[in-house]
Amino acid sequence: MNPQTLPPRTINTVVEGEVRLVNGNSSCSGRVEIFHSGQWGTVLCDDLWDLNDASVVCRQLGCGSARSALQSAAFGEGSGPIWLDNVDCVGNESSITDCRHNGLGVHNCGHNEDASIICEGKFYSYFRYPPFPTADI
């Protein structure tokens, strides 16, 4: 095959501080994990975990509003490092790492306390589709 006709390669790169949801029934529900120092780890022991914290993660993922902030490893226990504990978001932060916390990797909990969320789902538009009919005036 001629190198000029090869299809472009897609490179998936993970960014420091990126979040994901694992073991949920959609991309907008599951156990919260964060990428730090080259590896994914469970993000949050559920100490202080509430809807303000879940709202930040849902927004960070583009998943709309938070419906639930779940505790006690509701979507299963993770493995690997526990990156955040005692997260305390106001709710307007752009990233979970912008919220108050003990410091990355500083925790006093186990994976049985991994935090999870359920978001409303992908946010597509402010408007309903199909559009409402309009009348000529």
From TrEMBL:
Major site of localization recorded for this protein: secreted
Localization of this protein:
Secreted
Write out the entry's keywords from A to Z.
Disulfide bond, Glycoprotein, Repeat, Secreted, Signal
Give the protein name, as stated in the record: SRCR domain-containing protein
**Any one GO cellular component localisation term in the record:** membrane
Q: InterPro entries recorded for this chain?
A: SRCR, SRCR-like_dom_sf
Native species: Oreochromis aureus
Q: What residues does the SRCR domain cover?
A: 19-120
Disulphide bonds in the chain: 45-109, 58-119, 89-99
What PROSITE patterns does the record tag this protein with? SRCR_2 (PS50287)
